[in-house]
Amino acid sequence: MTALHVLSADLLRLCARALGLNEDHFDDKFDRHVSSLVANYYYPQMDEPLPGQLRRGAHTDFGGLTVLYQQDNAGGLQVLQGENAWRDVRAIPGSFVINIGDLMALWTGGRWVSTMHRVVNPDRADTSSRLSIPFFFQPNHDAVVEPLPPLAPAPDQQLPETVIAGEWMAMKTQKLFAPAQ
């Protein structure tokens, strides 16, 4: 957790610089972060999957950044490229995949897009399992998140003006686990 926190803080400093801000701009928004580390285990696909069946449906991550370790050569992760083209994200040994989350997208006024991604099944029955380990770098629960000046929301973005990080994540979690209507 400590190593992932240090890496994520370094990435945030780079994000701040890329946005033309002081590199410590996000420090006070992540000094009491509520991050989490998760192990996602995908069971072997013993039967051929149904057409269109997914291991994990399309979604974006809620927070600032996600640092993802994927098991080498297992495959399955895809990101949305454009409006409806999915692109495979192959594991590179010894590397991480970095996703921008909803709150970072809001901070940039939608100029940086929260990464829509999913996990697909193998094309056929497969006796190997899949493991992914995401570190969700979440800001302080009480961090105010709003587009950074002069970054007003881009004209084609439907983003809230201001949110409190903890309230945003609670609302997204509630929607995720709400019973189907």
From TrEMBL:
The keyword Cell membrane does not apply. Pathway: Antibiotic biosynthesis. InterPro entries: IPNS-like_FE2OG_OXY, IPNS-like_sf, Iron_ascorbate_oxido_reductase, Oxoglu/Fe-dep_dioxygenase_dom. Pfam families: 2OG-FeII_Oxy. Residues 33-139 form the Fe2OG dioxygenase domain. Keywords: Antibiotic biosynthesis. This is Fe2OG dioxygenase domain-containing protein. It comes from Actinomadura vinacea.
